[in-house]
Design goal:
The complex is a heterodimer of chains A (126) and B (133). By secondary structure, chain A is α+β, with helices and mostly antiparallel strands. Chain A has one domain: Thiol Ester Dehydrase, Chain A. Chain A is 33% helix and 29% strand. In chain A, strand 3 and strand 4 form a beta hairpin. Chain B is an alpha+beta fold and 133 residues long. Chain B has one domain: Hotdog Thioesterase (Thiol Ester Dehydrase, Chain A). Helices cover 23% and strands 41% of the residues of chain B. Chain B contains 3 helices and 5 strands, in the order E-H-H-H-E-E-E-E. In chain B, a hairpin with a 2-residue loop joins strand 3 and strand 4. The longest helix of chain B has 14 residues. The chains are: A alpha+beta (126), B alpha+beta (133). Strand 2 of chain A pairs antiparallel with strand 2 of chain B, so a sheet runs across the interface.
Chain lengths: 126, 133
């Protein structure tokens, strides 16, 4: 049982994307959508929802494993740095040794500068 | 009155929350994230992270979150695919609460069920500035 390669996903973050995600998820925290408010915070501007950035990892795994991901997938990640509108985010996966009948990957999201935004593991039943 | 997350004790169980993930909800989520994979249509299933995000959003809406709150960690495990149109129930509890370096660190655990069957379990670690509590 070898874990197959997983194709990366790259996505440009935009403020309209953050606004649409806020409406779709119900998370209207102003740090994500109110540019005037966000400028007054230590972030200095709006930042993407962590779950939006994480969705690129889930999409990557769904693209590789299809229905198996939808029925047996798991994620365990840490949010390490904020992503901002204008950032190009790449989700990628590195195969690990399978365990307990599950394929395992080290997963991460990185920005266009190589900064790690999210890191963790993803698993799916073999 | 909304009770701030930082003032809720470990072990607290939240009232069950019910939400429906219909075709429009799924479509809006996929459009917002830019996910154009056909698998959701062929399987008539909702992206699992959409379910986790909607449950977390509903949970955090039910509590007060101070400015500066950060989402630090997220774990999700799918137990079975979630069909489009599902009426889901989210049972959540505050599993852990601690203070560390000027932050109140809380772990929220959720079990999401469909007709009594567990379809998704999640754990979110949220960090709130201690001075806001």
């Amino acid at each position: 049982m070898n874990a197959p390669d997983v194709a990366q996903v790259t996505r440009l973050l935009t403020q309209p994307m953050l606004n649409a995600y806020a409406d779709a998820s119900g998370d209207h925290n102003p740090i994500h959508i109110d540019e005037a408010f966000a400028k007054t915070t230590p972030m200095g501007g709006t930042i993407a929802h962590g779950m939006l950035v994480l969705s690129f990892i889930s999409e990557m795994m769904a693209g590789a494993f299809g229905p198996q991901w939808l029925a047996t997938g798991s994620l365990d990640v840490r949010f390490r740095a904020p992503a901002r509108p204008g950032d190009t985010v790449t989700a990628r996966a590195t195969a690990q040794e399978p365990k307990d009948g599950r394929l395992r990957y080290a997963v991460e999201c990185v920005s266009q500068t190589g900064e790690q935004l999210i890191s963790g593991t993803a698993e799916v039943s073999a | 009155m909304t009770v701030p997350l930082t003032q809720i004790a470990a072990g607290h169980t939240f009232d069950p929350m019910t939400f429906v993930v219909d075709a429009e909800t799924s479509r809006a989520y996929r459009a917002a994230t830019g996910d154009t994979l056909p698998v959701y249509d062929t399987e008539a299933a909702v992206p699992p992270l959409a379910v986790a995000a909607l449950a977390l959003g509903a949970l955090l809406e039910a509590v007060g979150l101070p400015d500066g709150t950060l989402h630090a960690n997220e774990s999700m495990r799918v137990h079975e695919a979630v069909p489009v149109g599902s009426a889901l129930v989210c049972d959540a509890r505050l599993a852990q609460r601690s203070s560390r370096g000027g932050w109140v660190v809380t772990a929220l655990e959720s079990e999401i069920t469909l007709e009594g069957r567990t379809v998704l379990t999640t754990r979110a670690t949220v960090m709130c500035p201690a001075e806001a509590s």
